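pipeline/complex-builder :: batch 7 item 3
reading input block
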Amino acid sequence: MKIKYHIEGGDFSAAGIASSEIKKILKQFNISPLLLRRIAIALYESEMNVVAHAYRGTMHLDIQPSSIQVVVEDEGPGIGNIEKAMEEGFSTATEEVRQMGFGAGMGLPNIKRNSDEMKLTSTPGVGTRLEFKVIF
Amino acid sequence: MIIYPEKFRIKPEFERHFVNYLRHVKMNVDRVNEIVNGELLFVPDPSFLYTSAFASDLMSDVLRYFMENTLLITGLCTLQTIRTAEISNISCIIFARGKRVSDDMLQLAREHSIAIIECGLTMFEISGRLYQNGLRPIGESERVRE
């Protein structure tokens, strides 16, 4: 089963709607609550990243019987130093993002912690592609 | 001052039992509200029982822990607070320091069945009162794997 969502950069009031809807869909699949939570958190953090940093993006989900594969692609400034971005506590978030309770440099480490495989690639000035997989 | 429910007001000889009671405290949202002296804005399920609480203004940190039967104490009063709670399976939020919940937030809380309490106390005092009355911190073991 494949699902696609559009995410608008800078639209903080809508941030989280896609993740919330996907969580609702996955609930019907009889996935354990712990696993569902891990997936939801990884989705939510990646959605927040697009809203906080990019101009727009898409979230593609591929739900298989044994795993869920997520690809989040965005058009935006990209990430200059991926290694640095993966460090806990490193953030380039704006004041607006911080006022929302995010932007403390926990997002990418949170995604990594909650997924089984994660791949992050970026072209500065063009955009970022995040791919992660959670195995059931 | 500790606010005990009438039936648990104890004599010194029963203190040992009381300590045992505190180890297994579960309380519903009405009891929580009574302890923190707040205002209940929305209660989806009065019978749901809480065993622990977590206090944070940083939503990314809320997302780092496993939150079953846990309520959230926060001073961050935005739509993202409600969304974070929903994603983390948190079904009760106490807004501290007299923060006012907007209609949008309340609407979203209704959609996701999240109880909302507004409270004039600080996060420290809310945490202290609930701790004294038996709610526990979430343990390290409940952290989502590192």
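note: Chain A has one domain: 2-135.
queue -> next item
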